[in-house]
TrEMBL record:
Residues 97-196 bind DNA. It comes from the Bacteria. It comes from Chelatococcus caeni. Transmembrane segments: none annotated. The lineage of its organism: Bacteria, Pseudomonadati, Pseudomonadota, Alphaproteobacteria, Hyphomicrobiales. SUPFAM superfamilies: C-terminal effector domain of the bipartite response regulators (SSF46894), CheY-like (SSF52172). This is DNA-binding response OmpR family regulator. GO terms for molecular function: phosphorelay response regulator activity; transcription cis-regulatory region binding. Keywords: DNA-binding, Transcription, Transcription regulation. InterPro entries: CheY-like_superfamily, OmpR/PhoB-type_DNA-bd, Sig_transdc_resp-reg_C-effctor, Sig_transdc_resp-reg_receiver, WalR-like, WH-like_DNA-bd_sf. Residues 97-196 form the OmpR/PhoB-type domain. One of its GO terms (biological process) is regulation of DNA-templated transcription. GO terms for cellular component: cytosol; protein-DNA complex. PROSITE patterns: OMPR_PHOB, RESPONSE_REGULATORY. Residues 1-90 form the Response regulatory domain.
């Protein structure tokens, strides 16, 4: 989702916590007062902040890092590189929150598969991200759209929102087989919630 700088400030200050938690990273183009935005973003989100640079300038790069930017990327850049950089920053920034243990289940936030009773549960990347998101939000209901936004990015029109149901269904089946119960509660029109029934 893209904004002009003024619109972005307004959105950031009015967006719900759940919507902000769905953001996987902020990419800031070149605009006036860009160096003041990292502090504003950090007041609302821990997601990585990446700045795009038109020219190679050590002075500008150092200024952006000093302002709190996590990474600076020179244009043109492929969106997959931005996603990979955001994921790498996220892993570094969130080392304090390496894992969550709920009963027999351990969920890691550093790219590793979860474990049940010490044995890894092999999951595709999107199922692993869904599990991580639901565990972080455990005890709260998460809508299908919020989950979609967290996994695919806000307003991704290339993928149908209903694909989330398929991912969640496969994830629930794998967890149910290993745990003996389903830790993801699904309610029609209301969404999903991770609950500890162990």
């Amino acid at each position: 989702m893209g904004f002009y700088s003024g619109e972005f400030r307004e959105w950031l200050e009015t967006a719900s916590t759940v919507d902000l938690n769905a953001v996987q990273g902020f990419v800031l183009g070149d605009f006036a007062d860009r160096s003041s935005y990292p502090e504003l973003i950090r007041n609302h989100s821990r997601a990585p902040i990446i700045a795009l640079s038109e020219t190679r300038s050590l002075e500008q790069t150092l200024e952006l890092f000093t302002a709190g930017i996590d990474d600076v990327v020179r244009k043109p850049v492929h969106v997959r590189e931005i996603l990979a950089r955001a994921e790498a920053v996220w892993r570094r920034v969130n080392t304090a929150e390496e894992k969550t243990t709920i009963g027999r289940l351990k969920v890691f936030y550093d790219g590793r598969d979860p474990e049940i009773d010490g044995e890894p549960v092999t999951l595709p990347r999107r199922e692993r991200h869904i599990l991580q998101y639901l565990v972080r939000a455990r005890g709260r209901r998460v809508s299908k759209m919020q989950l979609f936004n967290a996994i695919y990015g806000i307003y991704n029109e290339a993928v149908e929102e209903s694909v989330v149901e398929g991912h969640v269904s496969k994830l629930r089946k794998k967890l149910r087989e290993r745990l003996g119960y389903d830790p993801i509660e699904a309610k029609r029109y209301m969404g999903y919630m991770f609950v500890d029934r162990g």
